[in-house]
Each structure stands twice: as structure tokens, then as C-alpha cells.
Amino acid sequence: MHYQTLDNGLRVVVIPRQNAPVVSVAVTYGVGSYSESPTNTGFAHLFEHLMFEGSENVAHGMFDKYCSEAGGDNNAYTTFDKTTYYMSLPAHQVELGLWLEADRMASFGVNEDALNVQKNVVVEEINQNVENSPYGTYSRVLSRLAFAPEAGYSWEVYGDPKHVAASTLQDVRSFFTNFYRPDNACLVVCGDVTPEAALPLVHKHFGIIPRGTLPLTQKPFHHDFRLGKRHQRVQDTIPTDSIFCSYHFDGYMTHEVYVADVLCSVISDGMSSRLYKTLAYEQQIASDVNAYVDDRRHTSLFTIYAVSNGAEHSCDAMYESMWQVLADVVQNGITERELTKAKNRIRTRIARTVQRASGIADEAAHQALFFNDPSRVFRLADDYAAITAEEIHQFAAKLFTVDNEVRVDFVPKELTA
Per DSSP, which regions of 238-320 are E strands? Predict the structure, then answer.
């Protein structure tokens, strides 16, 4: 692995993997929905679409065409804290991938027509995935309940469709200038390539891009932004009750995210997990029950959800049974067998990631951008291996409290005559 920072601030990682004649190129920018203002939300996700609309030397519609005709594919995703663009190409086409990414980093090529098209696309995506989808408004409700309005996590990644629809060309041009700059990005090239071959190409295409002229500042996050002991009931077009309970813990810049990951696996991974065994198998009050870790840079959420097995099983009944499981973990901890099983599951997940050049590139970009250490991608399994049952026990006792809880109940919409 080779890691360096160019004079313009761009972090560059080259990771040789000669097991297949393929190369993955990933560019991660340190901008997500957290970077937005409360009155202009949804810009980070909108930009995920706009960055495919053309740049100085790549006309509208040609980015995908160049990539696919070279035998490659590409995509992007947006989170609260970052936006990542990635592509996979035959190894001999690596310079094409670098040129395409450099050109759209160097120049804002979106015109009024392209902006209007993508605004409509994004608003329709919000309508489909949020407004008109069962449980689609959950993230929006949770964000408003769990965080103070001034916190960058108090709105979901999609943002407000009204803000997206009202955005102007000047708005998005300013967003590009502020955040789409080499000193706010990391480039990873992974696959059938060597640093000796890749670095001259990187300098050729990216080295000429000037660093940003405006100060690159991070919005502050305060512990008081986290709100607990909150509960809201939402009517939705669903057949039975469903419940979501979230609990605050530290962001992924701390070790807590690994502890949370192991605990989540213990209580929710598979049919032998504690939540499934209690709510679905023994009590048969839930048709589906699970948990996940929503890790973010400044603060994270540990979320448990359950879907009722019938109209006779209410949110309150599922909540009571769920808390029986959590209270047992808080009081008695977990067993060594559960710990080993959870670690093995996580180790398997990590192995799947590092088996693919695209997986390595994505994770290495994250580790370089936020930790300034891309090699962490190959040490993740060690971080999990060091976690003890007592550490899990102490974390659960701190995590699972009513004062730290945000609860959202989804109930069937009442029919009117």
C-alpha cells in the first residue's frame, strides 16, 4: 500500500491486488447531509446525482457512456458524513477512470437544464422511497426526535423535497466550491495496478487541481444535541403495529462503534439471537425483529425494531418483551459463546469486504479521510477480536436506559367511511 497527500491536499492511496485484471477507483468527499444548513437540506444527495451531469471535458450523458464502453461500471452513495463515487474498470483502463474523476472534481459543469432534471429526479425519489413507502417517513421522524433542530443530524440524508426543488444554480455552484475540492477528498486506486504506474497518472490528472480557496470548517456537534426519553406515534398504511427504538452512543471516531457492532450481533443476528428467540419464536408476537448500528462521525444510534405478528399484538406489548431481552443483557451480560459467535460473523463480513478490490477501495477511502490511516482497513478484525464480554456488559448498561431512548410507534392508519 502507498499513501501520500498531494500539494493540493488530496489524499491518495494505491493498493496493489493482482488477483484479477480489474481496478477500482473510489473518490470520497468529506461532505454529507450533516454539512448542510437546516434551511437548505438535501444538497449532498442532490450532488450525488449532479456529479454525473457533465464537467468541463465530459459532456452531459457521456460519463456513463465512457465508463461502460470501456467495460466498467460506476455508482455513488451519500451518507450523513460523506459522499463516495466509485467505479470498476479493466486494469488497462485505469487512466480513463482517473481522468473522469479528476475532470468532475476540477470543474462544475452543471447547467440550468441538468439541474432542473435532477431536482425532479430527486424529488420523485423522495416521493417513492419516503412519502409513499411503508415506514418511509421513519428516518425523518427519528431524526427530528433524536436530535436538536440545530444539529446536522436532525434531518435525513434525502433532506426536505421543498429545499431540493427550490435550489438554484448559484446554490449548487456554491456547494461545489465549498466541498468538492481536493483538500476535502480521498482518492483510492485498488486492484491490478502498482504505485509506480498509478502515481504519475494521479499527479497528471489530479495534481493540477487547485486546493479550495475558502476555509474548510466542520460544523460543531455538542452532546446536548442528543435528545432522549422521546416517543412519537405515527399512522401509516401498514397492516399491523411496528415499533422502532433507538439509543444514542458515540460516533465512529471512537472504539464504541465496534462494541456496539458486537452487541448488535449478539441480540439480533440470526434465528438463535436473543431478540428473535424471545419475540418471534417463544412469544410469537413479532413476525420480524432485528437491530442495526447506524454509525456516524459525531454520534451514532443503536436501533431495534419489531413488526407485530397480528393485530392483537401492540407496540406496547412488543416494547415490553424487547425490554425483557435488554434488561437481561444489562443485568447479566453476555456469554463467551455469544461473544465468539458474534465475532465470527463480523470477521466473515470483513473478509467479504477485503476479498473485493471495490470493497477495499471504499473502506480505505473512509479510513484515510477520517483517520488519516488507510491501512486500518486491514486491522478491523483485530479491533473486534480485542473486545471482551465485560466490555459489552458495561456498554449495554450505559446504552439501554429510558433517558437515552427514542421510540417511534407505527400503527395502521385509521380508515374513514
Answer: 242-250, 286-294, 299-308
Q: Does 189 fall in a domain?
A: yes
Is 414 exposed, middle or buried (CB count within 10 Å of its CB: 0-12, 13-18, 19+)? exposed
Residue 218 lies in a domain: no
Provide CB contacts within 8 A for 308, sequence distance 6+: 240, 241, 242, 285, 286, 287, 314, 315, 318
Alpha carbon distance 217, 194 (integer Å)? 34
DSSP annotation string for 32-92: -GGGSBTTB-SHHHHHHHHTTS--SSS-TTHHHHHHHHTT-EEEEEE-SS-EEEEEEEEGG
In the predicted model, what is the mean pLDDT of the chain? 95
Q: How is residue 141 written as a grid cell? A: 421522524
The SS3 of residue 27 is: strand
Burial tier of 13 (Cβ tally within 10 Å: 0-12, 13-18, 19+): buried
Nearest to 206 by CA among 8, 24, 4: 8
Residue 109 has a pLDDT of 86
Residues 6+ apart with CB under 8 A from 109: 53, 54, 55, 56, 58
pLDDT score for 214: 86
In which element (H, E) is residue 324 found?
A: helix 315-332
CB 378 within 8 A of CB 103: no
How many structural domains are present in the chain? 2
Q: Is the pTM of this model over 0.85?
A: yes
- Domain co-membership, 243 together with 176: no
Q: Which amino acid is at 414?
A: E
Residue 158 belongs to domain spanning: 2-206
217 lies in some domain: no
Residues 6+ apart with CB under 8 A from 186: 10, 11, 12, 13, 27, 28, 365, 368, 369, 374
pLDDT tens for 194-231 read: 999 999 999 999 999 999 988 888 889 999 999 999 99
Q: How open is the CA angle 329-334-338, to the nearest 5 degrees?
A: 130
Half-sphere exposure of residue 201, counting CA atoms within 13 Å on the CB side? 22
Q: Are residues 163 and 272 in the same domain?
A: no
Helices 94-106 and 62-69 meet at what angle, rounded to 10?
170
Q: CATH code at 264?
A: 3.30.830.10
